[in-house]
């Protein structure tokens, strides 16, 4: 029985194992998986990649936990720096059973081969084709196993913004890698209001003469920030020519993309002449965090290069990414087999139908290519470059770069950039543990030693050294020539605006060659909007004059700091107001007169109530008491009341009222004095609101932005607007008035109006300035000169030169100051509400206290009466009589009642005793 039970158990276990294997139904793994590689063996990247890929293949095949009994076999093809050969070699790999291709090295080959890879479903894994346009959407079978250049360009744009530069020059190889990288740089710079001001392409096989011709053009540009986006094998010659031309000295900034760091990491130390030509340059390097895996690979790199007979060179970041690319493939292949994937290929019938002698029919489709591609993009492992994982766009997660400064024979790390937190001096892996912080305060880099061994940050631009003067347009005004005017029979100009500009330019730390060019026909003031648009279009390099800073203009050009305040005001004719018979009533409004009179009577009545029971001066016949109230009330206006107050509450109310009277009397006296002694001016136009509602003609200066503002912003019909060309036209139109073909008012900018009113005393500004702006100098968008001149204008304001220039041109004494002729408004009730409120509250409190006192005294008085069971009406009449009664009489009656009450009680006691 025991043997039979044991046999049953063995059978059950066997069937379980068989059923488990049948359930999974996994095919056997092949002994070999073929992979192809395409790169230039003798290139800076290719030399390192060849050794790294071979080392990674050996490591994978030596690890039994990854592919088990399957071995990777890598076949390498050398493009020998030829795009055509690289394309042919890629097509040849498609004729084999390679499940993937590592490479190609260049973006140009990748663009072509990716189309074939899409059709044949063979993944391309490139560790060096960083062109941003090789997107996963267009080329789903292209997998970039290094960082996308889009992030490198984002890092450069943040560096440019961090140092406060605006324009950069881009020098690049004119191929897919160069053009598309620079295009991405332009997009990233525009996000930060920076731009590429000059693009310098070089043919892929450029010569020294090509570089020289290009750099001579670059030297004639204003920008001194040069971004060099090249391929590492031939790019150092650009620095050599730049050094020879003196373009590696003070003032220049050279930012090289990651190609330079690849050279420095692999081939350092370089030739002394080359090293001297790159001093002070900045470069980026794909960031790879320190780890044991990375250290182990670096420590055995010397043995690996000796084993491969590749010569002496060091490991760079491209080698690290090439090493990890093999491991990405190994993990993807393992996952592919674990899911039951089978490596099989089938012929494409469309290729058999293609005519020609090419062996196209030999190409085959990887049947499980989509599954394998999915396994590649799902890889999640820790490599020598750090965590390896792809995001939704097919890019590696956590893109980051080291920022390096070339110093001596090596480089110095001045900081890092990551897509997570921007620029920092802390390694990105440390910042990943904290919340993201992209604030400007948090963006930091260490100090840089710039070209020319300078530690001062370069300004980033200079005037071109080709001798061209800046063409500065100046309005050729025919009115208000004090601001800017053309000297007769010459092209020279003068005026307040010109002097301010010249003084500001003299404060700049560099020379500014410029020529002032009059703009206008000399018959009427030119259109300033047209002038601004011509500067934006590049017809002029700038504009100097009385140009207002308004919103529409700031959208197309840059303005300097305002050098004079401006804004639109209303000017109207004013009439002199003569004194009249009833001028003494004008200080107060009708409402204030009425409320003041009411309070006089109210306070008199309150004092009468409080004094009536104890003060004989407030007693007597009703007619006399009414006269007393009126007399006492109004006599307090002159502090001439003869009635004395004896009650505490009465004195309290009177003190507060006399204070109110003092304030009212003083205000009335001051206002009446002003009316009778100061000449008053009046006008039906009180400001812009009354002008809009009047529906009368409005004048404006020819060329001013006032026309557009009145019609577009305030919606005033253009039929109401009248063009006026000079101060004389202003005066004539205002004199005529709206009924005689003139205007009701003129709307113009404050500086013009102040100059106009200095000699025209019949007119005045009505209301307040209803726009706030200023005048500034105009330059094209992103012009660095506008920033430097703004600083100079502030310096002129601080040292007093700006005011001295103003006094020289704009101070006039022809008309006395009109500040004394402004129409003084009447005093309104709202100015005295607080006083009346205090007085009213005091009266109320005094009456309330007095009422409770009377009720209390009456209660005592009523309780002493022998018959207290009377009706309420009788009691109320009794209370009124009590209040009206003099206080002394009430006290004597109370004493009399108390005496009588005592006598009655004694009589009762005596009578009882006799009985």
UniProtKB/TrEMBL annotation:
Residues 888-906 have a biased composition (Basic and acidic residues). Its main location: membrane. One of its GO terms (biological process) is signal transduction. It is a multi-pass membrane protein. Keywords: Disulfide bond, Glycoprotein, Ion channel, Ion transport, Ligand-gated ion channel, Membrane, Receptor, Signal, Transmembrane, Transmembrane helix, Transport. The chain crosses the membrane at residues 590-610, 652-676, 832-853. The keyword Disulfide bond applies. GO terms for molecular function: ligand-gated monoatomic ion channel activity. It is found in: Membrane. Residues 1-23 form the signal peptide. Residues 471-812 form the Ionotropic glutamate receptor C-terminal domain. One of its GO terms (cellular component) is membrane. Disulfide bonds join 761-815. Residues 884-915 are annotated as: Disordered. Belongs to the glutamate-gated ion channel (TC 1.A.10.1) family. Glutamate-gated receptor that probably acts as non-selective cation channel. This is Glutamate receptor.
